[in-house]
Amino acid sequence: MASSSLLPHSLLSLPTASSRFPKSSLTISSISFSLNQVSITRTGSVAFQPLVRRGRESTFGIARAGETGEEETPAETGGDESATETLEEESSVAVAVEEKPPKKPIVKLNEIIGILNKKAIEEAETIKVVPDIKPGDIVEIKKEKANRRRLALYKGIVISKSSSGVHTTIRIRYMTSGTAVEIVFPVYSPKIKEIKVVSHRDVRRAKLYYLREKLPRFYTFKKK
Amino acid sequence: MGVVAIASQGLSLALGARLLQRNRSNPTPTPLPLPSVVRLCSSRKGSARRMEVLAMASFEAGIGVMATKLGMMTYIHPEGNVIPVTVVGFREGNVVTQVKTSATDGYDAVQVGYRRVRDIKLTKPELGHLQKVGAIPMRHLQEFRLQSVDGFEPGQLLDIEEIFKEGDLVDVSGNSIGKGFQGGIKRHNFARGPMTHGSKSHRQLGSIGAGTTPGRVYKGKKMPGRMGGVKTKIRKLSIVKIDTDLRAILIKGAVPGKPGNLLRITPAKIVGKNIPKN
């Protein structure tokens, strides 16, 4: 019991690597490789028990050497019966841990874009703090112009927000000199130096495109 | 032409051999190169005659790698401009599985494998081919035809940082998105007919030829048919960033296919710079 609960992860990965167990040398080497790629779960450990035992005996050394990070969570070692067994495993595990450096967490391919976006947002946050913006907010945006002289100031109502990682954009609508203007600002752009939420208007929509048909006084704001 | 006539029997043998040599992962076989000069070497063993083929098809400008398209995002350059990029990831693979030389195979190429799979997914011949070099079981095998294959050994791991660096121009090829059976307007950018004024032809082809002379439709006339889902190469894309921890590359612009698509990334072949000469 304890064997399966101690190493459910390492042994769960074995069936996925190959159903023909340790027959060819290629399979064993592929198992140690596959441990890097396969995500580790704890579900369904009971179902794999018979396979688990066989695999463990033959690939014990190889499986254990890889799983250094998981050694901290022996968790459900309820087995009083196999207390001696666990001691043996832990001592051999301790030896394996000293030999290998701590492993990096496995990154799945479909997580890479999320991680890159998070990193980019963290970098952008160092330039300015981006507040939480919702449609209906009246915001003031200070943006750097091309000639890098003065910062241009835009004050208007947020009529839509499009969230997509580091390219999250907001659409501002305001009236200037008798002309209605809508501008799309990428919120995490380094050219935007400051975003400040001045006030908020209660709206019952996520996209306020109806303002285009309304009177200009609903999107006219005085800049101080 | 006389040379070709002499070697006609051997030529058909070589053509047959080339057709069978098609790679498993290549969606469309590379067009059969017609050798301009063919030298027939008679073999004492009497089996299939060896062909030493000169002046053949195109070479790669350098060794390439295989990769997986992950998606697109925006990259904010430190200078402040914003670049649309494709994020390209790497599965376990990019291992040299065979090095072909003109002595053994008649041409110089490096065969690279990509994407680890369970060994039950491969046939025994495929497994044996990979076991010969001690490589992991891999699904895709592609060849990169080079001018010289020195410095490549079977079993060698190709390192992305050594082959490419930021700012390099690359050619990316992969299977494009399939569009199904499409008409002339989408497939060949034809113009629509008028929508009003009593017109009865809106999206049709229009005329497909002249009159009694020539009295037929030319071969290759652009007509509706299946569009997309073929091997497409996008040239001269620049590498914006190489992320070593995540094992990912950011390439400016778009690449063929949807996220998850197999890509083949090679150094860009630029006329005047690095087009390999025969």
Q: Give the second-level CATH assignment, the architecture of the domain at 131-218 in chain A.
A: Roll
Strand content of chain B: 25-35%
Element-level helix/strand string of chain A: HHHHHHHEEEEE
Oligomer, anyone?
A: heterodimer
The percentage helix of chain B is 10-25%
Give the tally of β-strands of chain B.
Answer: 13
Quick recap:
Chain B: GO terms for molecular function: rRNA binding; structural constituent of ribosome. The complex is a heterodimer of chains A (224) and B (278). With 224 residues, chain A is of the alpha+beta class.
Please describe what this structure looks like.
The complex is a heterodimer of chains A (224) and B (278). Among the domains of chain A are: 32-94, no CATH class; 131-218, SH3 type barrels. In chain A, 34% of the residues lie in helices and 20% in strands. Chain A has helices at 2-6, 8-17, 25-37, 49-58, 60-66, 83-99, 112-125; strands at 137-144, 151-162, 169-176, 179-186, 192-200. In chain A, a hairpin with a 2-residue loop joins strand 3 (169-176) and strand 4. The longest helix of chain A is centred in the middle third of the chain and has 17 residues, at 83-99. Chain A is elongated and about 75 Å long. The termini of chain A are far apart. Chain B is mostly beta strands. Helix content of chain B is 13%, strand content 33%. Chain B has five helices and 13 strands. In chain B, the strands form four sheets. Chain B has a six-stranded antiparallel barrel. Chain B has a three-stranded antiparallel beta sheet with strand order 5-6-7, with helices on one face. A two-stranded antiparallel sheet of chain B has the order 1-2. The longest helix of chain B is centred in the first third of the chain and has 13 residues, at 8-20. In chain B, 22% of the residues are buried. The chains are: A alpha+beta (224), B mainly beta (278). At the A-B interface, helix 3 and helix 7 of A face strand 3 and strand 4 of B.
